[in-house]
């Protein structure tokens, strides 16, 4: 079994500037075999285990075959659009990382005046990140939840919507450490009407196994907690590095999450993951990586070459060739991936839009079944690939044969 080699602090300082979403590294990519950190370097909390899981064979990558999706640009001139959430009336809220919430009409027209300007400390990979709509919004609970980097750490904030404006309503959750890297940022409501919050390790990998910390986890909040305030949410899963995608499989309601693998300063670059999340599961970071996780939960899919997976959604609308599949956006990979599942096993992984639009951040299914995808070409890791960057793409899955 290969052990990690300790990295000198001076080297770490150099590599941190190139880590995270871009997946830059001066170290050669790792092999698919798992790599373990000596247990003595971890806190006592790392002894918490999940049910042992056998090694999984990752599905091979495949090029797109058959009918192609229809793609068009529906908005441009945005600054790092990080997430999208649809309101019951078909409009969409779009977050821009510097601290703006924008409104898109149901027809895809971008409103020039922001719905809100959010105070944020947008350093490194932080800023205004995820957005989610209260499941009872149409019934009068007109709340919008924002995931924000502040000077005191990461916060989940509650805002109230009136007309085309959002006003701050309260703090839902704080106490999440922020860093210049690995702030995660995704929050989503599940089929159980609970609010799920993904948190990164903030560049301090030990936090992922520390049960006294909210970092490196997936947290779950009840309606009473997210409509009020909570200091201690449920730790739904732990042992994650920088999860940026949360999606529920249709019919089974299984939660699937994407997670960034090491980027150089905390291990050779590679081993991004797609995980089927089990309540109470421990996904091994930073103790283990790769396909074989031993006593920890094994990933459903592993990418030996860094793609930096971000947002993800299952295609729930019927009648398309992609119905039931997971679609995830890749930043470093500059592509979409369409994953087909057989239960919890990935049987096919198809690459789409490779290199055409640059770094892809969020992917969300619209009410009409199209996928809205955001680019992140104006962040610190990217560069514009079109005159209107950053953009929102509308991707229409091909019809079922």
Search tags:
mainly beta, 2 helices, disordered N terminus, 401 residues, globular, Neuraminidase, 5-stranded mixed β-sheet
Proportion in β-strands: 35-45%
Helix content: under 10%
CATH architecture: 6 Propeller
Query: Which whole number gives the mean pLDDT?
Result: 87
> How would a textbook summarize the main sheet?
5 strands, mixed
Count all strands and give the number. Answer: 28
Calculate the terminal CA-CA distance, rounded to whole Å: 47 Å
Dominant shape: globular
Question: Could you name the ranges where pLDDT drops below 50 across 5 or more consecutive residues?
Answer: 1-19, 25-34, 37-55
Which structural class matches the secondary elements? mainly beta
Q: Order the strands across the largest sheet as they lie in space.
A: 2-25-24-23-22
Q: Which CATH C-level class is it? A: Mainly Beta
State the domain count.
Answer: 1
Oligomer: single chain
């Amino acid at each position: 079994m290969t052990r990690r080699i300790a990295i000198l602090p001076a080297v770490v300082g150099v590599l941190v500037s190139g880590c995270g979403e871009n997946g830059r590294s001066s170290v050669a990519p790792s092999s698919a075999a798992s790599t373990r950190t000596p247990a003595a370097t971890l806190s006592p909390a790392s002894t918490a285990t999940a049910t042992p899981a056998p090694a999984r064979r990752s599905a091979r990558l495949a090029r797109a075959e058959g009918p192609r999706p229809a793609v068009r640009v529906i908005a441009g001139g945005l600054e790092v659009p990080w997430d999208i959430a649809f309101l019951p009336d078909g409009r969409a809220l779009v977050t821009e990382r510097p601290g703006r919430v924008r409104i898109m009409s149901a027809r895809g027209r971008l409103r020039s005046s922001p719905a809100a300007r959010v105070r944020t400390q947008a350093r490194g990979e932080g800023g205004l990140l995820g957005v989610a709509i209260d499941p009872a919004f149409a019934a009068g609970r007109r709340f919008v939840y924002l995931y924000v980097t502040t000077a005191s750490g990461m916060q989940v904030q509650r805002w109230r919507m009136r007309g085309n404006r959002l006003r701050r309503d309260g703090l839902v959750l704080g106490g999440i450490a922020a860093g210049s890297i690995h702030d995660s940022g995704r929050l989503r409501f599940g089929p159980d009407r609970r609010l799920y919050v993904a948190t990164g390790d903030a560049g301090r990998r030990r936090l992922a196994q520390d049960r006294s910390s909210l970092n490196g986890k997936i947290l779950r909040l009840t309606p009473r907690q997210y409509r009020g305030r909570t200091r201690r949410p449920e730790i739904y899963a732990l042992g994650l590095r920088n999860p940026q995608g949360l999606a529920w499989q249709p019919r089974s309601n299984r939660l699937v999450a994407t997670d960034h693998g090491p980027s150089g300063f905390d291990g050779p670059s590679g081993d991004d993951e797609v995980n089927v999340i089990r309540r109470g599961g421990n996904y091994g970071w930073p103790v283990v990586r790769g396909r074989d996780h031993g006593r920890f939960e094994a990933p459903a899919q592993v990418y030996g070459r860094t793609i930096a997976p971000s947002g993800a959604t299952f295609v729930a609308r019927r009648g398309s060739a992609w119905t039931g599949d997971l679609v995830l956006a890749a930043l470093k990979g500059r592509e979409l991936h369409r994953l087909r599942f057989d239960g919890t096993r990935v049987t096919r992984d198809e690459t789409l839009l490779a290199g055409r639009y640059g770094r892809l951040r969020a992917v969300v299914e619209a009410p009409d079944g199209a996928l809205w995808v955001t680019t992140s070409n104006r962040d610190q890791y990217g560069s514009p690939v079109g005159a209107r960057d950053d953009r929102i793409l509308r991707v229409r899955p091909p019809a079922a044969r």
